[in-house]
Structures are given as structure tokens and as C-alpha cells.
Specification:
By secondary structure, the chain is mainly β. It contains eleven helices and 57 strands. Helix 4 runs antiparallel to helix 6, helix 4 runs antiparallel to helix 10 and helix 6 (196-212) packs antiparallel against helix 9. The two termini are 63 Å apart.
Length: 886
């Protein structure tokens, strides 16, 4: 019988009906033990008389109870009260996808976001060998916070393992047609056994409907619809949805292949492809959506190649006189002997070569520090690399693969960019803040570098070794020039890793909306992005032999970067995943791979001054401790009283979505307050302005609900609140304008430009707010410092500040500005008197162990000057030559 409000079902108090479905009624209820609201699905009396539906209900309880994923409905409890079976799940606020599609199609961006989350949820279910078998819009729920949840595993099939029969009896027998007309796969219609690929077909039908607003196979009757699924293809989605990328149609057709062997073979492959499509179509992953890392194909162990082949011993016994051997047998004996000798010689000559299928790693460097750049010489036998050993500036070395000793080239403060048959392209005096330096050429034998271009980021040689393709900064933009002076591409984004193929094609990486794109320029054509999906960074691009693939190292999760291969049609595959941080540098014609492997750490020193030293130059005897938590504790903000740190764990420790933490003085451990990247802590301590992809969020530090802001743009991860705890300063690109500072009102969610477009943006949070909230110290397009009044009046330069320095904090009286240059060792903070322009050194930061420390930034100071915090970013790596990777 139906339940009324305030009725109880075990420990659950009924609040009201949420809906009714084929297997029962769903109620809103209160868990009186834990004090939380839940949803309870209860079988009705009609259903209880139906044995098959009771089996389906039990299947749903068993199948869904095995799953734990943000995109799958979470089951809390299952039981029976007074003979009434019930299933308790999380309470969702929102609507079903079916209800939403009743109002028309979704935008391409939103459809791909929802599809990505569905694919990730399916991947989690399929990992447990659970196939949904009834995927349709009414079984997909859209929550109010943007999450997608897959519901109702009522006819799910738990695939048999190790010879065990699947549960569920008749409900899962082959030959039975179970599912929903219009979303069933061909094999379901034919009554054949189904697997995960049937869900992928249903997924394709749903995605088609999300994009177009119409069903893929809908006809006038159910019989005609089933026939269309078996025999017909849906229309081209690009014709029905103008603006949808052609790649979306290709993905849909692969999902909707009639033969399951021609579809995506796993939901994980589908999810990875969707990540790339979502970025190319202007999408960003919704908040709190994890990105599962692809499963590794193999994980080779670092080892040295064997020095020699095994020794073969034979024992010969003296024989007694025996009868004469026939000439034929003697000839055979000599042939076998000669063949054996030839084989032994072959084995000896190839004793150091890789056995087919074996992967070996030969270590090239042995000192403590970071490898910055490396390339093979054209013959693949010599390695040219640059490294910072033992805290010293970067230096260039030449080493043979056959010997551990390396010869220094004698060029200080230089990094290797590219190597031709006779020359090395170097970057001299790279600025650790902007990454730019002076391009120079030097013979492989050594000599004096010949400088050829300024403001260069990276470079690679043309196929003939006569010209260089470069990435250069100019006018607030980044240019790809090939050869130097001939602009092939220009963008506002920080493009990197230019590589030229033997046939003249050029490839590079470009970050866009939180994702890294692999971009290729064919001779005489415009740039074309071919793949993306590395949201946490990609680097180390290189052409594989033959030019059919590009390899790179990157990650789409919190795990360290792994080695991927990307075909020119955009298909990506994992080559290998190693422990630690991997970076690809080069691939030789013989398919030897030059890469580094190491570790990263971000120390977070937090110091406090003695009262007697306030407003005086800071002594080195400050009380200082390391407040870092996991592997990459990146400082975001310091409270006004200096007693609370806001920081982010953005790499392996923080997980796929990154983690935001507050650490309060005197407490033994920090508190995790959410996912994403925390930018700034409000002066009243109640809110954190955070970033999740391209979206801005407000996270409460105590009780309360997160709130997603509607402000549109591509914003830096850094931010600074104004004293009213309502407005904040954010930097980024809004619309088609260049980078500028904006005033963001978090209540009406409006943006107001504060600075001209195109100002310098070499690091997040290169700005500081005055104590009274009327002025902001920020940067100009020339990389100098200026003060911008919030009332819109003219900006004024900061006298005494040097180019490349950024503002850190105003003093409490508003008369002094703390500034520093976020570079390597040592890091110096100066105090500038805003009236006179005089400057004095306030503090110099230098860790006791400088090895691998490549940057000290950011540095934050409390307004009263009593407390400070900063990051010391460290990378330690070794260089390897890998053979056998395919």
C-alpha cells in the first residue's frame, strides 16, 4: 500500500512521493540515524505479484550496490520491512534527461559535457562487469549542480567471470528482448547475448538526441523503429545541428555501428575521445567530474641492457675408435657446424640489442638536479642535453650512449632546443618567469654562440638543417615563425614545443580552455588541431619515425605525465606509464626514445617575524616551518592576520580534480574544502573564490553550499578579494580581448574591466589590492608595474619598481609596496616607498638544499608584515634512452 508523509520504513521517515515507475514508487525520506535526506524506491503491491519484476528489483540492488562513482546513483541501503522490499539511494535534485529533451536539444557544449560524464559512469560500471542494458534519457539524471547520474540498473546484467553463471535467472537469458525501443542495440533486438558495447550503442542514440532534439531511429511504429536500428543509419548530425564539429558525427557513427566489433570497444576509450571533442567544441568539464586515467598497456621496469649474452659450455668426452663416417654425414656435420658458428657470431655482435618485445632503459645522467632539454644527434648515437646540477645554472653537455661521462660544452646559462647535423640551437639566459630568452646557434664541436633572435620560447630545425622554426613573443601574442621572420600562426595563448617533421610539417602544443591541443600545420595550409584532452598539461612533443604519429607526455588527471602517441586523424593511445614524472624530449630514426623520469615537490614554508622586526628588513632568523601537505602544495592566499593558508594540491596527491585546502595555525592538519583550484580567501574568511576548468565558483569555508558563477571568460587561477568581501580582482581573457584585470562582483556576477587589454600575464596573481580597496597594483603590456584606480582614473607607474617584478602586498598604511621577481634562486623581496620610490631589500629566500629548485613563487606577505609564505618548486630528474617502446 502507498506510504503517507511521516510513515516510517525501518529507520526512514517518509516525506512525500517523488515519482512512480515500472518497478515501484520513489519517496523522499529522512534517515533518522544520520539526519540526511534520501530517496527510497519501494515495490508496489502490483509489482510484488510479478516474480520477474521482483528479480529485476533484486538485480538493481545488487548491481548498483557494487558501484561507487560520481556519475552513478549511489546506493546507501537495501532491505525489507514488513514484507516490502526497498532500496535507499542518494537524493537527487534536478530532472531527468528525458524531461530536459522535451524542451528541445542541448547545446553542443552541454551535450558533450553530459556525454563525457555518462561515458565515465559507464566505464566504472563496465569495470565491475555490469552492463546497463536499458540506457535511455529517462535513466539519465541532470542534477542542479551540473552533474550527470545514470539511474536504474533494473535489468543490468552482471557478466559471468571465471565460468560462473550471471545472476538473475530468466531476466538475463539470451533470446529475450529486454530494453527500450529506440535505444536498444541490434544484438538486443536479435535476442543475442549483450556486453558493454550494447551500452555504447544506446549511448550513441542518446547523444544523437541531445544534439539534434530528435531520436536517431524513431519511426511511425515500434516495429519500424526496430527495423531502422537493424538496417538504417541516422542522418548526419552536422546537417541537423549547425556548428557541431564533424568529429562529433564520426564519433556518433562509430557508437552506432551495427556490428559491435566496429564500435568503440570500451567506455574508457569513448570517454577519452569525448574529452578531446569537448575541448575542440568549446566545452569544459563540469565541476567535480573526475577524469579517469587510461589503463596502462605495460609498465616496464627501469633496467640496464645486458652487457653480454650468456656463455654456452659444452663438454666433450674422448670417444673410442668407431666405424668410418659416410661422406654425406660428414658434409651435413660441417654445414651444421658452420651454421652454429655463424649464429654464435650474430649473437655476440648483437649482444646489446633489444630482444623483440622487450623494453629497456639506459640511464644517461647521474648527477642531482633537473634535465631541462635534450636531443639526439641525427645518427641517434650521441645525446646533447642541458641540466641544472646541484643548484647551479643550466649548462649544456654532450654524451655518448655508450659511456656515462659527459663533456660540458662550456656555455653558461643555456638550454638545448634542437640539434642538426652540425649545429645546436640554444636558448641563452632564459627568463624563469616568462620562459623567453635569446636564440643562438653553436657548432656541435663547441665555440662561441651566435645570437640570432630575442624573445624566443622554443625552436626546431628545418629538415635540411639550414633554417629554424621558432615560437616568439611579440606584442602580447605568441607567434610561430618558419623560417624566422615568416609568421605562420599567431595567438594569445602560450604555445610551446614546436617540432618540424622531415617532410616539413610543423606541430606544436596550444592550451585552450584548460586543455592542451596538438596542432599540425601542413605546408601551405592553416593550423589544424588534431587531438586534445591533457587537462593537467602536455609537453615534450616529437615526431615518430615515418611521420605518422606524434608522441608527447601529458596527463588528464592528477597522476604524473605518461607517454602517449597521437595519430594524424586524432586517435590517441597510451605508449607507457612510469612511476614518477616523465617528460619526452626526442625520438631517433631508429625509434630510440629520449626521456627523463623523476619527481616533483612543492615545499610551502610559512614564517613569522618577531614583533621587534615588524616594518624592518626581515632577518634570516625568522621562525619558519614547511606547511606543505601532499606532493604539490601550491600556495594561493594568506589571510590578513597571517594565521590561515589557502593552498591547492594539483598533481598526484590532489587527484583527478585537484583539491583545495585551508591550513590554520596551531592545527595539526589542513582541511579539504572542495575540488578545483582555490584562488583567494575573502577578508571575512567565509568564502574561497575558486576555479574549476573555465568556471568560477564560490566555496564556503564553513556551513553553506557552493555556488557557480556565470561570469564568462578564461581566467587565471589567482585572484584577490577587495575589502568588502563581495568583489574580487581576477585576471583573464573575456570575449575576443587580450589579457586584462577585471573587477568581479560575486553577487550580481558582473565583470568590469579594470586595465587595458594585452597587459603582461606571465604568472597568476601579478596584482595586489590597496588596504582601502581603491587601487590595484598590477602590470602593464611592457612588463612594468602600475597602479590602477578602481574609479577609472588614469593609471600611474610605480617608481622604483624594475621591469619583471610583480606586486606582492601593500603595507597596512598603504604607503609601501612589497615586490619580487618570481624566478629561480635566490628570490628577493623588496619594499618600495610609493612616495619617494626608494627601495630596500626586505628578505632573500634560499632553501638549504637548492638542487632542483627552479622557481620560488608565489611569495605572499600579510599586510602587517609579520607573516609570510612562499613556494619552493623542485624537480629532480634523470635522462634515459628507451628502446623497444612501440
Amino acid at each position: 500500500m502507498p506510504f503517507a508523509p511521516n510513515d516510517t520504513l525501518g529507520p526512514y521517515r517518509i516525506a512525500g512521493i517523488l515519482g512512480e515507475g515500472g518497478m515501484g514508487t520513489v519517496y523522499r525520506a529522512r534517515d533518522t540515524r544520520l539526519g540526511r535526506d534520501v530517496a527510497i524506491k519501494v515495490l508496489t503491491n502490483v509489482t510484488l505479484s510479478d516474480r520477474e519484476r521482483l528479480l529485476r528489483f533484486e538485480q538493481e540492488a545488487r548491481a548498483t550496490g557494487m558501484l561507487n562513482h560520481p556519475n552513478l546513483l549511489t546506493i546507501y541501503d537495501v532491505g525489507e520491512a514488513d514484507g516490502t522490499p526497498f532500496l535507499v539511494s542518494e537524493l537527487l535534485e534536478g530532472e531527468t534527461l528525458g524531461s530536459r529533451l522535451g524542451r528541445g536539444p542541448l547545446s553542443t557544449r552541454r551535450a558533450l559535457d553530459a556525454a563525457l560524464q555518462m561515458a565515465q559512469g559507464l566505464a566504472a560500471a563496465h569495470d565491475k562487469n555490469i552492463v546497463h542494458r536499458d540506457l535511455k534519457p529517462d535513466n539519465v539524471f541532470l542534477t542542479r549542480d551540473g552533474r550527470v547520474k545514470i539511474l536504474d540498473f533494473g535489468i543490468a546484467k552482471l557478466s559471468a567471470r571465471d565460468g560462473e553463471a550471471p545472476f538473475g535467472g530468466a531476466a538475463t537469458e539470451p533470446g529475450m528482448v529486454l530494453g527500450t525501443v529506440g535505444y536498444m542495440s541490434p544484438e538486443q533486438i536479435r535476442g543475442e547475448p549483450v556486453d558493454a558495447r550494447s551500452d555504447i550503442f544506446s549511448f550513441g542514440a542518446i547523444l544523437f538526441e541531445m544534439l539534434t532534439g530528435r531520436r536517431a531511429f524513431k519511426r511511425n511504429s515500434a516495429i519500424e523503429t526496430l527495423s531502422a536500428i537493424l538496417k538504417e543509419d541516422p542522418p548526419d548530425v552536422t546537417e541537423l545541428t549547425p556548428g557541431a564539429p564533424p568529429a562529433v558525427d564520426r564519433l556518433l557513427r562509430r557508437c552506432l555501428e551495427k556490428e559491435r566489433d566496429h564500435r568503440f570497444q570500451s567506455a574508457r576509450d569513448l570517454a577519452f575521445t569525448l574529452e578531446s571533442l569537448a575541448t575542440l567544441s568549446g566545452s569544459a568539464t563540469l565541476p567535480n567530474v573526475p577524469r579517469p586515467a587510461p589503463s596502462p598497456t605495460h609498465a616496464p621496469t627501469l633496467k640496464q641492457p645486458s652487457a653480454a649474452s650468456p656463455t654456452v659450455r659444452t663438454t666433450v668426452q674422448r670417444a673410442k675408435p668407431k666405424p668410418r663416417i659416410s661422406p654425406l654425414l660428414l658434409a651435413i656435420f660441417w654445414l651444421v657446424t658452420l651454421a652454429g658458428a655463424a649464429y654464435a657470431g650474430y649473437v655476440w655482435a648483437n649482444r646489446n640489442k633489444v630482444v623483440a618485445g622487450e623494453v629497456t632503459f639506459q640511464r644517461v645522467t647521474f648527477r642531482r638536479g633537473e634535465v631541462r632539454g635534450a636531443r639526439f644527434t641525427p645518427d641517434g648515437e650521441t645525446v646533447v642535453y642541458s641540466a641544472t646540477w646541484d643548484g647551479q645554472p643550466s649548462e649544456v653537455f654532450i654524451a655518448s650512449r655508450q659511456a656515462p661521462e659527459a663533456r660540458p660544452l662550456g656555455v653558461p646559462d643555456a638550454e638545448v632546443l634542437a640539434v642538426s647535423r652540425g649545429e645546436i640551437a640554444l636558448l641563452l639566459r632564459r627568463d624563469r618567469l616568462t620562459g623567453l630568452g635569446t636564440l643562438a646557434r653553436i657548432p656541435l664541436a663547441g665555440g662561441i654562440p651566435r645570437e640570432v633572435a630575442n624573445d624566443v620560447l622554443q625552436a626546431d630545425w628545418s629538415p635540411d638543417g639550414a633554417q629554424l622554426a621558432i615560437i616568439r613573443a611579440a606584442g602580447g601574442k605568441y607567434r610561430l615563425e618558419s623560417p624566422i621572420g615568416n609568421v605562420r600562426y599567431e595567438t594569445l595563448h602560450y604555445i610551446r614545443d614546436v617540432r618540424v617533421a622531415p617532410d616539413g610539417r610543423i606541430a606544436f602544443l596550444e592550451p585552450l580552455r584548460g586543455e592542451y591541443h596538438v596542432v599540425v600545420i601542413e605546408p601551405g595550409e592553416q593550423p589544424s588541431p588534431i587531438a586534445s584532452g591533457w587537462s593537467r598539461g602536455a609537453t615534450g612533443l616529437a615526431w615518430a619515425p615515418g611521420g605518422h604519429e606524434l608522441w608527447l607526455t601529458g596527463t588528464a588527471s592528477g597522476s604524473p605525465p605518461s607517454l602517449y602517441a597521437v595519430s594524424l586523424d586524432g586517435q590517441s593511445r597510451l605508449v607507457t606509464r612510469l612511476t614518477g614524472s616523465t617528460k619526452l624530449f626526442d625520438i631517433s630514426p631508429a625509434n630510440r626514445v629520449l626521456l627523463s623520469n623523476g619527481m616533483w615537490r612543492a615545499a610551502l614554508p610559512w614564517g613569522e617575524a618577531d614583533a621587534a622586526t615588524v616594518d624592518q628588513p626581515m632577518p634570516d632568523s625568522f621562525r619558519e616551518r614547511d606547511a606543505s601537505w601532499l606532493d604539490w602544495s601550491i600556495l594561493a592566499d594568506l589571510s590578513h592576520d597571517g594565521k590561515t593558508l589557502l593552498f591547492n594540491e594539483t598533481r598526484e596527491g590532489g587527484g583527478a580534480r585537484s583539491a583545495i585546502y585551508l591550513r590554520r595555525a596551531g592545527e595539526p592538519a589542513p582541511v579539504r574544502i572542495g575540488d578545483g583550484y582555490g584562488g583567494a580567501l575573502s577578508p571575512d574568511g567565509k568564502w574561497v573564490l575558486a576555479h574549476h576548468g573555465s568556471k568560477l565558483l564560490l566555496l564556503p569555508t564553513g556551513p553553506g553550499e557552493p555556488r557557480e558563477l556565470t561570469a564568462q571568460g578564461s581566467f587565471d587561477q589567482g585572484a584577490v578579494w577587495l575589502p568588502d568581501s563581495r568583489r574580487a580582482i581576477v585576471g583573464g581573457v573575456a570575449g575576443d580581448k587580450g589579457y586584462q584585470l577585471h573587477v568581479l562582483d560575486t553577487l550580481d556576477e558582473k565583470l568590469k574591466p579594470l586595465t587595458p587589454a594585452g597587459i603582461w600575464n606571465g604568472t597568476p596573481r601579478a596584482f595586489a589590492v590597496s588596504p582601502d580597496g581603491t587601487r590595484v597594483a598590477g602590470m602593464t603590456a611592457a612588463g612594468t608595474m602600475a597602479i590602477y584606480p578602481l574609479d577609472g582614473s588614469a593609471a600611474t607607474p610605480v617608481n622604483g619598481a624594475e621591469k619583471g617584478e610583480i606586486p606582492v602586498q601593500w603595507s597596512a598604511d598603504g604607503n609601501t609596496l612589497f615586490v619580487h621577481r618570481p624566478t629561480g634562486l635566490p628570490a628577493q623581496v623588496y619594499r618600495i616607498d610609493l612616495t619617494t620610490g626608494t627601495r630596500e631589500l626586505w628578505k632573500e629566500f634560499r632553501p638549504a638544499d637548492p638542487a632542483g629548485v627552479y622557481r620560488i613563487a608565489p611569495v605572499l606577505i600579510a599586510p602587517d608584515g609579520r607573516t609570510y609564505a612562499y613556494n619552493a618548486l623542485r624537480t629532480l630528474s634523470d635522462l634515459y634512452v628507451a628502446e623497444g617502446l612501440r
